[in-house]
Amino acid sequence: MNISVVIPLFNEDESLPELHDWIVRVMEENQFSYEILFVDDGSKDRSWQVIEALALKNPNVHGIKFRRNYGKSAALNVGFEATQGDVIITMDADLQDSPDEIPGLYKMIITDGHDLVSGWKKKRYDPLTKTIPTKLFNWATRKMSGINNLHDFNCGLKAYRKDVVKSIEVYGEMHRYIPVIAKWAGFTKIEEKEVAHRERKYGTTKFGLERFINGFLDLLSISFMSKFGKRPMHFFGLYGTISFLLGGLLTLWLTGEKLYKSAFHIPTRDVTDKPLFYMALIAMVIGTQLFLAGFLGELVSRNSSDRNKYLIEKKL
Fold first, then answer.
1. pLDDT in tens for each of the 316 residues of the chain?
2. Per the CB 3.0–4.6 Å rule, which of 69, 241, 243, 264 could disulfide with 287?
């Protein structure tokens, strides 16, 4: 099978028939073998009934329905597990992503040899309250991830080589950082394609401003996990040791200064009367706590079921 199209959705019953017909037209015009996988993330409207009707009309349509709303990341992860195509295309169900982009994305994966191609909606039809935070979010992600050739990490329109989606796990709200997760997993051929952004035709957006705060926290989390997920002691142990040694050296210096001045009868305050002494104690306590956190992290990591899980590209 050439292409699997994965579409996560939540309360999008109005747009699904039009989106389905558009995708089918593009597939037939380009003679692609395909499947369309709708993942209903606990919709409260008639979305599932529409999917069932589409599946009766088109045997290439499949659906997965969650019992409740789990979020876009969960929908994508389950969809990735169910796909069978050589190239996986993801797009949103609100008709803001154009299926006409599918042939170009497919070519960049199959012909050009990329692992992942992310859409870039250079011209957007969104209010400034959304576009300005998005630009800041993408700038921060580029700086922290080192993927400097992507302008829009959170674009729903993406294409993946099959190996990519079968090798990564998307959880929480990490769908914003799939390129970062893919790079962490060793898929470095990541490229961008400028795609059309269409105005929303039906319904309203499902995301609020809180997603930018959550997105920043998720970025910190994934950056830490990508670097220290399997070796937490290298982070906590390093800074814990530095903090403990700094506090210890300050304590020794204060004690030595007190003994020196006492020996030569130079007036001086008690060590415990100096604020610097308590700062040194705090540094030693923090250092000890960080070191213990690293030690506990190592114990958890070593007992993890995927502690020796590595991605093998080829084997003779």
1. 899 999 999 999 999 999 999 999 999 999 999 999 999 999 999 999 999 999 999 999 999 999 999 889 999 999 999 999 999 999 999 998 999 999 999 999 999 999 999 999 887 766 666 667 778 878 888 887 888 889 888 899 999 999 999 999 888 778 888 998 898 888 999 999 999 877 766 666 655 556 666 666 777 776 676 667 667 888 888 899 999 999 999 999 998 988 888 888 888 888 888 888 899 999 999 999 998 888 887 777 666 655 545 555 555 4
2. 243
245 Cβ partners below 8 Å, 6+ apart? 287
Could you tell me which of 102, 91, 76 has the C-alpha nearest to residue 168? Answer: 76
Amino acid in the structure at residue 313: E
pTM over 0.90: no
H/E segment holding residue 146: none
- Which residues have C-beta within 8 Å of that of residue 308, sequence separation ≥ 6? none
- DSSP structure class, residue 115: S
Strands 34-40 and 190-194: unpaired
Residues 251, 305: Cα–Cα separation, whole Å: 43
31: left (phi over 0), alpha (psi -120 to 50) or beta: left
Check: CB of residue 152 under 8 Å from CB of residue 225.
Answer: no
CA distance 90 to 75: 11
Q: Which residues on adjacent β-strands are paired with residue 35?
A: 4
Q: How far apart are CA 195 and CA 125, in angstroms?
A: 13
Q: How many CA atoms lie within 13 A of 262 on its CB side?
A: 9
Spatial CA neighbour of 120 closest among 154, 143, 159, 152 = 152
Query: What CATH number does the domain located at 3-228 have?
Result: 3.90.550.10
Number of Cβ atoms within 10 Å of the Cβ of 92: 19
Question: What residue type is assigned to position 230 of the chain?
Answer: K
User: Angle at CA 68, nearest 5°, toward 219 and 93?
Assistant: 65
